[in-house]
Amino acid sequence: MLARLIPFSLALALLQVSLRFKDEGDLARRLKARDGGAMRELYDRYGRLVYSLILRMVRNSAAAEDLVQETFLRVWNRMQGFDQERGALGPWVLTVARNRAIDYLRSADGKISAGTLELDQLEHPGKFCDFEDRALSLDRARRIKEAFEKLTPNQKTVVELAYYEGLSQSEMAERLQQPLGTVKTWVRSALKALREQLTEAAAV
Amino acid sequence: MTCQELRDSYELYSLGLLDGEERREVEAHLGRNCVVCQAYLKEALGVNALMLSQAHEVVPPSRLRRRVLSSVGQQRAGWEWVAALMTAGSLIFALWLSLEKRTADRELSNARLTLEQTVAERNQLEQAFALLNQPETRQVNFGQGQTAPPRGNFFLNPRLGVLLIASNLPALPAGKTYEMWVIPKGGAPRPAGLFQSGTQGTAMHILSGAVDANVTMAVTIEPESGSPAPTSSVLFTAGF
Fold first, then answer.
1. Per the CB < 8 Å rule, is A53 touching B53?
2. Which of B35, B33, B9 lies closest to B21 in space, CA to CA?
3. pLDDT tens across A16-55, in order?
4. Which of A100, A131, A162 finishes a domain?
5. Which of A40, A187, A195 sits opposite B43 (nearest CB)?
6. Residues of the domain holding A72
7. Which residues of B touch A73 (CB under 8 A)?
8. Of A60, A143, A191, which to mutate for an interface test with B (greatest number of B Cβ within 10 Å)?
9. HSE on the CB side for A4, CA within 13 Å?
10. What does B40-73 look like in DSSP terms, one character per residue?
11. I need a labelling partner for A85 at 20 to 30 A (CA). Which of A114, A119, B92, B205 fits?
12. Domain shared by A43 and A125, yes or no
């Protein structure tokens, strides 16, 4: 009985994944064709994630709303560089959102153009190709959350400073008043732990 | 550095947080289209996307959706009411304009009518003066000595025609008009034009054109469209 159920549930999961990605490719195709309905769908799919991320980073709801708008406008305007067959919309949209928030934080700190060009290159839609089908799946999200919870307080701090405040390792060292080498160790060990958790999940 | 040694750098690199020397190393590997490093980069982008999706979930205000869609021209951002209001306003304005135009047209038409009447009256007066001013014009009066009679004068100029000036005319029944007749000696009455009286029962009427010098003039009340021959008793008459 179990032997019969497992292949069936596995097939169902695979079918769902393939349907979701077919759907995502179709969404990307429609976005490239400037289909307004597709933009509504994109917002309904990622709007909450984007807003939550940006608000977490800038901690100001009015600024967050501006930045969410900028994010979707940028995605809309750069859609032509996106590969609808191989691209992953979610990771790209989230990266664009983070970079908008980082730009805002840096300009608020008086570092207006520092790294802006670099961020621009790093969020090029062409880079978000050939992701795993499950790039933002609930399972992977749960696993990375668990992995994060297992990090030491110092590792958690540096990971948050990197992802949500956009600090480089030397900036972290300065902020935390720790030697750069120590900070680098925390950062690398933390990222390795997160990555390995996902790799293990993929191997299961 | 080897690819393996750089593996822990790709998350920071793709977040734009890698410092100088390390960043150059990563870029050098990626620039050579190193397959291993490309794979590490994808892996790092995946980790980053998942980390970025971990923010405590907050529901955005509904206006934000309208705003976002509006910024890419896909929603009217709640401005539908403005458009509707403008449309309604335009319609009301158009209606008002059309009413105004109709009123203006009516006033213009009335003014034209008044002008036409004034011009006609002036022409009639000029004709009357011209006829009265001729030495060969003769005058006969009527209604003298009668009680509340129509009274007045016929002026005849054989070359110019006949002028009638009357007063005390009885009010006309609805659908009726006065008709003047020229009655040649020994002949049947010939129609000589229709006319109406003023509010005081006064009237002036002209028959233009050559007329026999010894005709009899008469006036009867006839149907509005006139009659080829008198159909009612004579209201007043006078002979030359």
1. yes
2. B9
3. 444 444 577 888 899 988 888 899 999 999 999 999 999 9
4. A131
5. A195
6. 24-131
7. 68, 71-72
8. A191
9. 1
10. HHHHHHHHHHHHHTTSPP-PPPHHHHHHHHHHTT
11. A119
12. yes
* Shared-domain flag, residues A152 and A107: no
Q: Contact A53/B55, CB-based, under 8 Å?
A: yes
Report the gap between the CA of A3 and the closest CA in chain B (Å).
33
Closest CB to A162: pick one of B17, B19, B71: B17
Res. A117 pLDDT band, cuts 50 70 90: low
Whether residues A188 and A125 share a domain: the answer is no
Report how many helices (DSSP H) and strands (DSSP E) chain A contains, helices first.
9, 0
* Chain A residues closer than 8 Å to B58 by CB: 48, 51-52, 55-56
Cα four-point dihedral sign B197, B200, B201, B202: negative
CA distances from A115 to A104, B16, B59, B77 (A): 12, 7, 30, 34
In a domain, A11, yes or no: no
Set of chain B residues whose Cβ sits within 8 Å of the Cβ of A136: 49-50, 53
Is residue B201 within 8 A of residue B178, CB to CB? The reply is no
Q: What is the CA radius of gyration of chain A?
A: 19
Cβ contact, residue pair A191, B46, below 8 Å? no
pLDDT at A6: 41
Cβ contacts of B68 on chain A, cutoff 8 Å:
39, 43, 47, 68-69, 72-73
User: How many angstroms separate the CA atoms of B231 and B75, rounded?
Assistant: 80
Which tokens in the block code for residue B175? Answer: 């659908």
Spell out which residues of chain B touch residue A36, defining contact as CB-CB under 8 Å: 69, 72-75
Inter-chain CB proximity B48 and A69 less than 8 Å: no
Q: What are the CA-CA distances from residue B19 to residues A26, A168, A184, B46 (Å)?
A: 39, 7, 11, 21
Rounded Cα distance, A180 and A173, in Å = 5
Same domain, A51 and A84: yes
Residue of B nearest to A136 (CA): B50
**Sign of the dihedral defined by the CA atoms of residues B114, B116, B120, B123, in that order:** positive
A157: tokens are 């701090």
The CATH number for A55's domain is 1.10.1740.10
Per-residue pLDDT tens digits for B128-140: 888 888 888 999 9
- What are the pLDDT digits (tens) for B5-51? 888 888 888 888 887 788 888 888 888 877 888 888 888 888 888 89
Q: What is the DSSP letter of A14?
A: H
